[in-house]
Amino acid sequence: MPTGNWYMDLVFGNKFFYDLYSNYIVGESAPIIYEEKHLTRDVILSNLEIQLVSGRGIFRMNKEHTNPFGAMHGGCHAMVMERMGNVYAKHQLSSDTVVLKAMQIEFLKAAKGTIHIDCETIIKKDDEIHVRVLLKREDGKIFSEGKLRFLSSCHVTRDTI
């Protein structure tokens, strides 16, 4: 399966190079085991600074957010986008709670270091909002783009989900 990086494709696609990698790189260190924490509150929100009015935020990555190659784990991308989009949607809809109905993420590059987050409204209806969430490097280059659709929970029924 292609990784999007020629170097990683070479390592994982060739048995000789993979054996070298697994014996000399992976075999050197014991796996890191982190203490059990509440995933959203402790792992994500403790590292997320939100500027509500501007729809911007900053996420400071540490080791527990990364994959073995030091880049942010794809699931972490999704959680950061969902948390940021949720807060933004509540503010834009003037609602106490919102429900995420749909989410589409395009992973463009590996994310490392401090991540800047921008939210913007794509479409806003009475009780529904479509939000674009961009994860960027400090120089403005985009890591990933998410399109999220939220409903105000006061209008959610079984038929709308």
TrEMBL record:
The lineage of its organism: Eukaryota, Sar, Stramenopiles, Ochrophyta, Bacillariophyta. It comes from the Eukaryota. This is Thioesterase domain-containing protein.
